Amino acid sequence: MAAMTETAETAESAETAETAETVPAAVREAPAARAGEAVRRRPRPRVWRGAVLALAGAYFLLPLLASFVFTVHVPGQGVTFEAYTELLGADGFSQSLLLSLGLAAATIVLSLLLAVPALIAVRIGSPRLRPVVEVVCMLPLVVPPIALVTGITTVLRWGPEHLSRTPLYQTFIAVQDERFPVVLVLAYTVLALPFVHRSLDAGLRAVDVPTLVEAARSCGASWPYVVWRVLLPNLRTSLAGAAFLTLALVLGEFTIASLLGFRPFAVWIVSISGAQARMSVAVSILSLLITWLLLLVLSRAGTAPSTTASAPATSRKES
User: Fold this and answer.
1) Which has fewest Cβ within 10 Å: 1, 32, 54, 149?
2) Residue 272: is it exposed, middle or buried by C-beta count within 10 angstroms (0-12/13-18/19+)?
3) H/E stretch holding 74
4) What is the model's pLDDT at position 110?
């Protein structure tokens, strides 16, 4: 037995040596070559990265800096902050700003109420309708705002003339109230649909919606509970992004509000630009700061850790 074991070991060592001889030298030396190459490889310099960031920062900050200098430097008087001190007491400033913020809040709520249930329903029950919903939501990008406001103006003129003896007459009057024009909310909701759809669709693609819904429903959760406590916390970042895009759109929209005869914040800025140029530039800078501040608030709300919802009782009745 010892002789047989020694013979087997001798044959195995001979086979190993033969295999090593048949393997090309380049293949055997490849790991060593790669290790030497990794040692010789140097980290890439980050000079270009810093240069690109510096150019991007200069592109955005230099115009703002020039605008700020224009508002505080008056030839012959030196540095003065009258444009900012007189801003808060300017006629129509607070009213137009509050109106724009109210329109933005209403537009955000309405657009999310329209888009979130529709996208969730399509994601769960009718995946084949996703292209149709996407095309419908993207149509406002194709229709120019001037065409949209022309259609809205035609409808607003046609309604009171032909529906003066019906209850709908008061509806046409109410949506055009200057204190809070609901017609602007409807128009802004249409304009915001593409951005809301893109943001929410990206969030839904990153979440396994059917599995979450099936797990929650199997535990006895009702549909409102599933949407409110299971899906929406997972879409918090997408909801915050959609809200910010809608806010930026409403605060900067001018064409529709101006042609319809209303005076939100953007229209008010343009109206004072001819008589008080420095104040109009100061208001523009202030609007940028307000937008950035709201962006930080929304981004903070979108990235804040959500509390884990307690699982519903199995005995809970399904709606």
Assistant:
1) 1
2) middle
3) strand 73-74
4) 95
Name the pLDDT band for 185 (thresholds 50, 70, 90): very high
Least confident of 6-10, 148-152, 185-189: 6-10
Strands 73-74 and 78-79: antiparallel
Helix H or strand E segment including 78: strand 78-79
Which pLDDT score is estimated for 2? Answer: 47
The region that residue 307 occupies, defined by phi over 0 for left and psi between -120 and 50 for alpha, beta otherwise, is: beta
Nearest alpha-carbon partner for 136 in 108, 110, 106, 115:
115
Place of tokens 């903070």: 300
Structure tokens at 61: 């900050």
Question: CA triplet 102, 264, 296: central angle to 5 degrees?
Answer: 55
Residue 315: how many other CB atoms lie within 10 Å: 6
Q: Which helix (H) or strand (E) covers residue 85, if one does?
A: helix 82-85
Q: Count of residues for the chain?
A: 319
Q: H-type helices in 143-180, by residue range?
A: 145-162, 168-174
Beta bridge partners of 74: 78
**Does position 304 have pLDDT exceeding 90, yes or no?**
no
Instruction: Name the 3-class secondary structure at 79.
Output: strand
